[in-house]
Amino acid sequence: MDALTEINQFLACETPQAWIDEAIKQQELLLVDHAHCEKKAASTAMTLMFRYVDRSDLLNKMSRLAREELIHFEQVLEIMEQRGIEYCHLSQARYAGEMRKHVRTSEPGRLIDTMIIGAFIEARSCERFAKIAPYLDDTLSKFYRSLLKSEARHYQDYLGLAESYAGEPIDRRVAFFRKVEKELVEKPDTEFRFHSGPPALVESVN
To answer: Please, what are the domains in the chain?
Structure first.
């Protein structure tokens, strides 16, 4: 089984076509938010390294992940600069924040849930890169396809760490977050972001 097939089986749903259609129309915004996502992913990995200093496997995997995410961040910025797109502040998408509301507060539940959420974020990113790549120009399509391998590995790293630290099956917890993630991906969003749901229909006022 290849990594993308595994990821598609891990996720409960595909990205809605309506999101893809909106992404094609809003490629500048897609790139700006993509840059923010890479930076936040690196920051999350670093935060975990500072929080769990006694876990060598986590430190090694998160250190590598943070470096890769920052390289991706720089690559997105370079593409934006070439296209005259300004990197600017954006309001946060609801996606990650809504999932993190369900993280348990005591350890090791807190760590396990954080790792599971990380796996879903990386898996969804990988799935969306693959989904949108065929619709983009050659440069952007090639770049997004080049990210698939690392994003798939990040998903596997997060999920593997969650399983390791739980010391027992995590199927029920994964199933819980799979349902939450599916609802966020399929529920209409008023703002377009890399991890947003399909665009909400705005009723015209006469």
So the answer is: 22-186 (1.20.1260.10)
- Predicted structure pTM score: 0.95
pLDDT tens for residues 76-101? 999 999 999 999 999 988 999 999 99
Rounded to an integer, what distance in angstroms lies between the CA atom of residue 161 and that of residue 116?
9
Question: 108 preceded by cis ω (within 30°)?
Answer: yes
Cα–Cα distances in Å, from 196 out to 2, 40, 72?
26, 16, 20
* Residues facing 189 on adjacent strands: 199
- What the block records as the tokens of 174 is 């994964």
